[in-house]
Amino acid sequence: VQLQASGGGLVQAGDSLRLSCVASGRTFSNYHMGWFRQAPGKEREFVATITWSGDNKDYADNVKGRFTISRDNAKKTVYLQIDSLKPEDTAVYYCAADSAPMPRHYLGIEYWGKGTQVTVSS
Question: Tell me: the pLDDT tens digits for 88-117?
């Protein structure tokens, strides 16, 4: 499956963004989806995951309450709504897909999209 993320940008602290990731190539609804991010000099970290049906979601503690993951299987798209952005949210955000339940660690995940840059100024 091919993944294309978009929606990043340069924003101010407190602003909101909605990231999108469009999938192609395979049956999107067969895949669990996730968002990870990587700040300069840091390891890629887990942000949020959503099961293939959308029934179950999981969030990193440091984004819980501000980030919302969702998906539209008809549009083959997964979203990440980011509210109350903070400078520490600055990173490249990557979407990921896996036919198995998405782990919280980036190693071993089947498919990755190219990231979209989010930069939050204070």
Answer: 999 999 999 999 999 999 998 999 999 999
